[in-house]
Amino acid sequence: MVKIINTKTGHNIKDRDEDWDIINSLETIFRKKRKYVIKMPKPGSPVITALSGGLDSVANTVVLIEKFGLEVYPFFIKRNQSNLKWEIEATDYYNKLFKKRYPNLYHDVLKIDVETPGQTYKNMLRATKNLLDDLELRKRNTYPARNPVMFLTGMEYGYALQSKGIFPKTVFVAEHSADVSVHGSLTLMRIMNLLFCWLTNDWEWQFISIPIEKEFDNCYGKEVMVKYCAEHGIPLEHTRSCPDKDKIQCGKCEMNCFDRRMAFKLAGVEDKTKYRFPMPAKKPLR
Ligand SMILES: [Zn+2]
Fold first, then answer.
1. How many domains, in total, are found in the chain?
2. Distance, CA 32 to ligand 1 centroid (Å)?
3. How much distance in Å is there from the Cα of 84 to the middle of ligand 1?
4. Residues 6+ apart with CB under 8 A from 85
5. Which of 55, 69, 74, 142 allows an S-S link to 129, with CB 3.0 to 4.6 Å?
6. Which whole number is the average pLDDT over 68-90?
7. How far is the CA of 57 from the centre of ligand 1 (A)?
8. Eight-state DSSP code of residue 74
9. How distant, in Å, are the alpha carbons of 239, 243, 270 from that of 273?
10. Model confidence at 103: pLDDT above 90
């Protein structure tokens, strides 16, 4: 088994844009309620994981099964995303691969219809993003409730499985060290975890993103996930990162295609993905 290491790029959880007042306060509450902040479920435990067909969620699913031996119930959100067709194509590819490769630990992905943000006000949100006050924050958070809505849905799916005698108490996502959005923060992980527990009146619920979980001393980026998959024979060229409507990924958009290509480079793994454009020399800005 290959040990997943902290990133060699020097990322440190303390350097991220986190609200340590919130994190520390919530961790005090978790310690009081359940004696620990976060712990990895025992091998064989049922868990919920987000699966979008993207590189991070696909690689994270492999880690959950191969490294931690967890029984995985993945969910996919049909949220009216522009590249829905291609995300579904990618998800279906890996769903088939994982079912064949991990027949005892991987369950069929559940595709859930949750429109977020709502179409009726999505254009207004885009206009709000372009307001010129506090530009930095707005640029980084176009749809403030989108990811929290998806995270809550994942928890609710896990809660619903209790009706079938299956009791997952942990939801996994794949936020990583280079993701600077508020949705990729440890602060939001802890806030959502509190919500899960309080809404279900069950303090066993956990919300974990392994790449940025400080309780595991982790702070790594996509390149570690690319390397892990290469070492475990999982092809990543069928994953979908680009939000464009085109079938072939653009290869140059910030946060998606560019970061994906950079991760292959940093990992020293050949990128077999087809792109429409060559990789920009510098990271493009929105
Ligand atoms: Zn792209």
1. 1
2. 44
3. 14
4. none
5. 142
6. 97
7. 17
8. E
9. 8, 15, 9
10. yes
- pLDDT higher than 60, residue 59: yes
20 lies in a domain? yes
Per-residue pLDDT at 11 exceeds 60: no
Contact partners, residue 75, CB within 8 Å, separation at least 6: 48, 49, 50, 51, 109, 110, 111, 112, 153, 154, 157
Q: Is residue 163 domain-resident?
A: yes
Position 141 scores a pLDDT of 80
Bridge partners (DSSP) listed for residue 43: none
Distance 249 CA to ligand 1 centre (A): 5
Q: What spacing in Å lies between the alpha carbon of 117 and ligand 1's midpoint?
A: 21
Residue 269 domain flag: no
Cα-to-centroid distance, 2 and ligand 1 (Å): 30
Is residue 93 a part of any domain in this protein? yes
**Measured in angstroms, how far is the CA atom of residue 223 from the centroid of ligand 1?**
18
Max alpha carbon distance in the chain (Å)? 52
pTM over the 0.85 mark: yes
- Cα–ligand 1 centroid distance for 85 (angstroms): 15
Distance (angstroms) between ligand 1 centre and the Cα of 39 equals: 35
Task: Please give the distance, rounded to the nearest whole angstrom, from the Cα atom of residue 28 to the centre of ligand 1.
Answer: 41
Q: Please tell me the distance between residue 242's alpha carbon and the centre of ligand 1 in angstroms.
A: 4
Q: State the SS3 of 146-188.
A: HHHHHHHHHHHHHHHHHHHCCCCCEEEECCCCCCCCHHHCHHH
Torsion sign across C-alpha atoms 208, 213, 214, 216: positive
**CATH value at residue 71:** 3.40.50.620
CA of 234 to the centre of ligand 1 (A): 22
